[in-house]
TrEMBL record:
Compartmental location: Cytoplasm
Hydrolase listed as a keyword: yes
Protein name as catalogued: Exodeoxyribonuclease 7 small subunit
Organism: Candidatus Pseudogracilibacillus intestinigallinarum
GO cellular component: cytosol; exodeoxyribonuclease VII complex
InterPro entries: Exonuc_VII_S, Exonuc_VII_ssu_sf
Annotated keywords: Coiled coil, Cytoplasm, Exonuclease, Hydrolase, Nuclease
Coiled coil, from the record: 7-65
Family, similarity comment: Belongs to the XseB family.
Length: 78
């Protein structure tokens, strides 16, 4: 499963996560299936967060005009 997660784009992972949330909102699915979906959803959530963090780090580096890097939060404070 983790290999499959790494192959998903951010948009694909987010769509799959949204589908899992919709399934979990259905009261008629068995507990075991709910637990499996929850576990998969947590993995997808972590993967999406990693992708967003990587994208944020790349954007921070690209935004620096003088060639130095600093976190985006520090740019806002200046």
């Amino acid at each position: 499963m983790s290999e499959q997660l790494n192959e998903l784009s951010f948009e694909e992972a987010l769509k799959k996560l949204e589908e899992i949330v919709a399934s979990l909102e259905n009261d008629e699915i068995p507990l075991e299936k709910s637990m499996a979906l929850y576990e998969e959803g947590m993995k997808l959530s972590k993967q999406c967060n990693r992708m967003l963090k990587n994208a944020e780090e790349k954007m921070t580096e690209l935004m620096q005009a003088d060639g130095t890097t600093q976190p985006y939060d520090e740019v806002l404070e200046d």
